[in-house]
Write a structure and sequence with these properties.
two-stranded antiparallel sheet; alpha+beta; 4 helices; 2 strands
Length: 101
């Protein structure tokens, strides 16, 4: 039996159709790719508090004192590099139709 979290089954699945280099990482791993090298490192970050934006929920809890200045989204330069995958785009449309993000 393989312990949960062991990457070997993932690698075995990948190897059924791909024999190139593979990197399995964890959250906040930064991968810098240049023509000369590939460097991986862990990101240094300051965790932001979880911010709730559903006004009805906030009202039901007596309001909010959230600091909107800590809200952030994806950087424009990074968003411009997203490669669309039809299934994911269809799922996003389905969520939007249901009023979800």
């Amino acid at each position: 039996m393989i312990a949960p979290g062991t990457p070997q089954p993932i690698l075995d699945g990948i190897r059924t159709g791909y024999d190139g280099p593979v990197l399995i990482t964890q959250d906040f791993t930064v991968i810098n790719v240049t023509p000369q090298q590939i460097v991986t490192r862990m990101a240094a970050f300051e965790p932001a508090p979880f911010l709730v934006s559903d006004q009805a929920y906030l009202d039901s809890k007596g309001g909010s004192n959230q600091d909107a200045s800590v809200m952030h989204g994806m950087s424009g330069w990074l968003e411009d590099t997203i490669i669309a995958i039809p299934e994911i785009e269809a799922f996003k449309r389905e969520l939007a139709e249901k009023g979800m993000r």
